[in-house]
What we know:
It comes from Cyclotella atomus. The protein is α+β, with helices and mostly antiparallel strands.
Amino acid sequence: MTATKKSKIHQHFSHDKGLLRTLTLSWLAVLVVGLALKKGLELFPNHINSLLPSFSFSRLISSNESDPSWQHVEFHGDVELFRRPMALVLEEYAPFFSTKATGLYAYRAVTAVDLPIEALLHVFRDTPNNGVWMKDLKEAEVSHKSGAHHTDANIQVQTAAVRHRYNVPIPGVSDREFYMHQKVTSIENSKGKHVKVTFEFEPFNEKDDKMEMFASTCFGCVRATKLAKWTFTSLNDSSTKIELEVAADPNMPFTNFFVNIYQKMWPHANIHGLVTAARHHLHRNDEIQVTNVLFKLFPLKM
């Protein structure tokens, strides 16, 4: 082979190699820009996100088909809000609530989101970090967590004790502290996937329950009372129905009118916070997977 032919072949391969390098770098640049744009959108202020539709098709779900005592109040985006007089739940839990609570309302919020149930449960079950997304929550602690036991072939039940400390965003008003029993009921299908998971919170009995089980307490806080129930129902592999019921007596030095206004914001804000945190968790996992693939394709040479 002549020197001229060798030179042309070398130039041809050099050209192809340069073209391949250019295409690879271009693809990486597009990928990096895409991830940066996605990350930038995630960092938009929460008040901007609240103006955008965050949920999907919740209005197609009949929200109070089982209990007509819940009266529709309004929609917050696609979250439907209901209320009913607290007096309807005080008969069973009267010892835990003050007489002032009879003038308060219990609230219920319902929606459906385009997220798998596992993504929501991953965030919700991380009790110490619930303050990242739960409105005004300052501290969260779980204690005496039992092992899950089966009550049926596909039903598991687990119990625990939970302490919540909430900041009251009003000057001069002390933080509120809640001590609660938590009961988690999980229903799974034959493949071991969650179909429905319920988290029920009931107040402690001050006479029978010992507060020493918790690692910390708030000496400047005011004890308050709360009943709450979160229900997650899988609609399919990529969507979940969320229901939140809460009946709280924050023991505040204000009129019931003001307390009802304050507590009315709580259910929607917490569902929105949970969904936002779950989306961030999924996006973070996607970024990690993309990074791992890139390192396998283009390993760093030391």
